[in-house]
Amino acid sequence: xxxxxxxxxxxxxxxxxxxxxxxxxxxxxxxxxxxxxxxxxxxxxxxxxxxxxxxxxxxxxxxxxxxxxxxxxxxxxxxxxxxxxxxxxxxxxxxxxxxxxxxxxxxxxxxxxxxxxx
Length: 118
Fold this sequence. Notes:
Distance between the termini: 53 Å
Largest sheet: none
Number of strands: 0
């Protein structure tokens, strides 16, 4: 009698415990979870954004160096009108570099959050 009662309690506990454990479907494992397609696509998009931002920064830095070289040449030869336009270009390039670096930092942070599922 006691053995039957213990067997009934163990069976009830096992069935009840299995009913309350989260399953794969309820954990959303296959759709948008850690191994889901959405996660990989988001990581690929972040990496693509990071590559594009790095390319923009390289392009802006080259433009900055070219404008700075033109500014020195215009100052050396006394062309103050051209020098003031070069100075405006330099300021604009500096702002572009700052914005691109901020965008790169945010994309890298987003990639980190996507990798570790924050």
